Amino acid sequence: MTEADLASIATLEVGGSRGPAGWIEWNRRNYTEHGFGLWLIEKHSGDFVGDCGLTLQEVGGEWFVEVGWHVRSDAQRQGYATEAATAVRDAAREAGIEHLIAIIRPHNVASRGVARKIGLEFEREVHKNGGLALVFGADLRNDASTCRSGFMHDGWQGAVP
Ligand SMILES: CC(C)(COP(=O)(O)OP(=O)(O)OC[C@H]1O[C@@H](n2cnc3c(N)ncnc32)[C@H](O)[C@@H]1OP(=O)(O)O)[C@@H](O)C(=O)NCCC(=O)NCCS
Questions:
Q1: Domain for residue 155, yes or no?
Q2: Which of 11, 56, 120, 137 is an S-S bond match for 115, by CB 3.0 to 4.6 Å?
């Protein structure tokens, strides 16, 4: 994701106060500081569909890796978010992330559907950014003794802030 994608990002409901330019800047900073961030979702034709990827998010005083997604309105309900989030989840597992979460507002039925389809289950309610949010999550390692907190990765650089 670069400044060249500004017009595309402007078509998404990214919410928050960052705006499209701030969104791209935040994403670039994430790659620099943590080695991961959001990817663009594109069709094989190269047409822009949305974004999906990994960011660090604070929940209840702990930092977790979150999978996030946005699909442009005219491409929704065609499985793009599920396809992208499945690939991101698998990449996170391969990178050694132990526990993956998605933070979703209660009314966001579509995102709850995506979370469910990639195997994330409801974990808890939290207050975040001025409102109630639901945390969905999954342990990515098969080992039952997996530690749920934070993240562990040998391949990616960067520390929990
Ligand atoms: C959330 C979002 C990314 C979903 O993208 P999408 O490509 O349409 O999602 P999918 O087609 O993969 O849908 C996956 C599942 O989610 C659920 N879902 C998706 N859209 C839905 C809707 N409008 N109403 C109810 N359920 C919905 C369904 O269970 C669906 O599976 P199904 O089609 O087999 O029934 C998209 O709606 C979006 O960008 N919304 C605005 C931004 C946003 O909320 N981002 C997330 C912030 S946490």
A1: no
A2: 120
Pocket test for ligand 1, best of 41, 73, 111 (most atoms within 8 A of CB): 111
pLDDT of residue 93: 96
Which 3 state secondary structure label does DSSP give 91? helix
d(CA 51, ligand 1 centre) in Å: 13
Phi first, then psi: what are they for 155, rounded to 5°? -85, -30
pLDDT digits (tens, 9 = 90+) for 72-81: 999 999 999 9
Average pLDDT over residues 68-73: 98
Any bridge partners for residue 53, and if so which? 38, 68
What pLDDT is stored for residue 155 in this prediction? 43
Look at residue 157 and tell me if it is in a domain. Answer: no
- Give the model's confidence band at 142: pLDDT under 50 very low, under 70 low, under 90 confident, else very high: low
On whether residue 145 sits in a domain, the answer given is no
Task: For strands 131-139 and 99-104, give the pairing.
Answer: antiparallel
The residue whose two tokens read 């929704």 is 76
Ligand 1 neighbours, Cβ below 6 Å, are 13, 69-71, 76-82, 104, 108-111, 113-114, 117
pLDDT tens digit string along 42-54? 999 999 999 999 9
- Number of compact structural domains in the chain: 1
- Amino acid letter, residue 79: G
